[in-house]
Amino acid sequence: MADVNRGNRPLSPHLTIYRPQLTSMSSILTRITGNAMLVAALMIVWWFLAAATGPGYFDFVNGFVTSWFGDLVMFFSVLGLWYHTLAGVRHLIWDNGYALDIPTAEKLGWACIVGSVVLTLLTVVIV
After folding, report:
1. Nearest to 31 by CA among 69, 72, 88, 92
2. pTM (2 decimals)?
3. CA-to-CA distance for 73 and 12, rounded, in angstroms?
4. Would you tell me which of 26, 61, 86, 93 could form a disulfide with 109, CB atoms 3.0–4.6 Å apart?
5. Fold (topology level) of 22-126
């Protein structure tokens, strides 16, 4: 049977009125960093394959990997690696049933963001 009250039902929230939450944004960022690290991994594999191919091709690939663009990709891959690691630890905490209340979950989200920036800067400076 047809629903005669179809126009009277409430609509679900639309993206223009929905306020994104830190936990949802950090979950999306975890997926993005996981996929983005694949770009750096492929670049490293390309570098190794060039090293195995010969000195001429290796010089070309090494020039690309050590260029400003390659350095930028590697910097953001380190940032993504630290963020992805800290977000994984956060999910392990949640999987054990801890820190599930909203204020603590938001603190853990900020800890992942700030911690990944600090650990990235330490990694870049030390290494």
Report:
1. 88
2. 0.80
3. 39
4. 26
5. 3 helical TM bundles of succinate and fumarate reductases (1.20.1300)
- pLDDT tens, residue by residue, 115-125: 999 999 999 99
3-class DSSP assignment, residue 51 = helix
Phi/psi at 20 (nearest 5 deg)? -60, 140
Domain ranges of the chain: 22-126
Both tokens assigned to 5: 């009250």
On whether the CB atoms of residues 101 and 86 are closer than 8 A, the answer is: no
Answer whether 65's CB lies under 8 Å from 114's CB. no
Cβ contact 33:77 at 8 Å: no
pLDDT in tens, 65-93: 999 999 999 999 999 999 999 999 999 99
Burial code of 17-55, b = ≥16 C-beta within 10 A, e = fewer? eeeeebeeebeebbeebeebbeebeebeeebeebeeeee
Are 113 and 26 contacting, i.e. CB atoms less than 8 angstroms apart?
yes
The residue type of 13 is: P
The pLDDT assigned to 42 comes to 95
